[in-house]
Amino acid sequence: MTALPRQHELDLHINHLPLVDRAYSMILQFEQSAKSDKELVHARILGYLIIHGPSDDARETVAREVDSCHGDETKLGNLGQFYVEHYIRGFKKYKGRTPTPSSHPSRHSFDILKDAVSSEITEPATQHRVAKRKALRRDNFRCVITGAVDDASAERDPELRQTALLLGVTVTHCAHIFPESTNMNISGDGNNKVQRDYAASMWAVMTRFGYGDLPQKLNGSNIHSLENILTLDGNMHEYFDTLKLWFEPTDIPDKYNICWSEDWRRQVSGALSVQFTTPDPEELPLPSPTYLHIHAACAKVAKLSGAGDYIDKLSRDLEEIRVLSKDGSSAELLKHVLLPLSSEIRVF
User: Fold this and answer.
1) What would the mean pLDDT of 12-38 be, rounded to a whole number?
2) Distance CA 80, CA 83 (A)
3) Is the pLDDT of residue 231 over 90?
4) What is the pLDDT of residue 314?
């Protein structure tokens, strides 16, 4: 968790609107008065969304919402928690349960948007194997980071076996940038209704951030489109899904720097950058720069604000705790214990 930079340290392109300046000042006051790590996370996620949000629309949206709180720290805390649950947790893999959708401070307008999205989203068909086969063809049957050859493909192809002797072999995964679990189990009532409400809230956030086409572009089986998929080995997939690894674009088209939440993890792969290529741009399109950018912004905000560590701690505590305390100290955990189980996604 990193303290927010002072107002005068902000880049000029961020600190140029009176609204943003006023909102950021409010966030700094909230950070200064925070009485717990949780409140610090809430303050810093709002601040770092203004600094590292994925778009101008995202930064201005958060600034407007902060400004509407008029310095009320309870409302600011609720807003911060909303983005922990509906932005960070939307991308971050966790051993927990689908969060009950939080109320947005602009509840009426947000609920109208969320309901509109909810009426349109559909569950994906199970097309993991088809998506993986296509991604393997595009990615030359290798993990795009380590270069290690897919084990199952090497078994079938003598030439790939020879390549594997040089570059290594691994079990690869079909890694999604926007998680395939987002629209899973959203049909029907009961727990599925909560899952649908959560999915609609996440897509509504994306719409407010300026990505109004995403709920449809990634609806149903489109979540398995190659623009949303990378071929990664098991370790890299875990790092990517837990926001410990992300991709930053370079000046060279389709070339990305590989970024890590901790510098020492860079030694795990040995790779500093990756050049995405495809033998057929029409049939086998490359990962979307927009999707990778949104994921990268989420990873940076999660790291700097401490929201990623906050979610990890809840996950660890849920695994370790056996009896909830009677004094109310387990209230935060109890909230998560009572939530419906999240989708368990198969990896092929």
Assistant:
1) 84
2) 5
3) yes
4) 67
End-to-end CA distance of the chain: 34
Retrieve residue 124's tokens. Answer: 């994906």
Burial of 312 (0-12, 13-18, 19+ CB in 10 A): middle
pLDDT in tens, 285-314: 999 999 999 999 999 999 999 887 777 776
Q: What are the backbone dihedrals phi and psi of residue 275, each rounded to the nearest 5 degrees, phi first?
A: -110, 110
> What is residue 226's DSSP assignment?
G
Q: For residue 264, what pLDDT is reported?
A: 79
The length of the chain is 348
The residues near 4 (Cβ < 8 Å, ≥ 6 apart) are 27, 28, 31, 43, 44, 47, 48, 51
Residues in Cβ contact with 168 at an 8 Å cutoff, skipping those fewer than 6 apart: 146, 147, 148, 149
What pTM value is reported for the model?
0.84
Q: Which amino acid is at 251?
A: D
DSSP 3-state assignment of 172? strand
The pLDDT of residue 219 is 85
Read off the tokens for 201.
């809230």
Nearest partner of 11 among 56, 57, 44, judged by Cα: 56
Distance CA 35, CA 4 (A): 16
Task: Please work out, in degrees rounded to the nearest 5, the angle formed at the alpha carbon of residue 124 by the alpha carbons of 122 and 130.
Answer: 155
Q: Taking a C-beta distance cutoff of 8 angstroms, is the pair 94, 345 a contact?
A: no
Task: Give the integer Cα–Cα distance in Å for 260 and 244.
Answer: 6
pLDDT bin (cut points 50, 70, 90) of residue 51 is very high
Sequence letter at residue 163: T
Provide the token pair at 135. Answer: 């991604």
Rg for the chain (alpha carbons), in Å?
Answer: 21
pLDDT at residue 86 greater than cutoff 80: yes
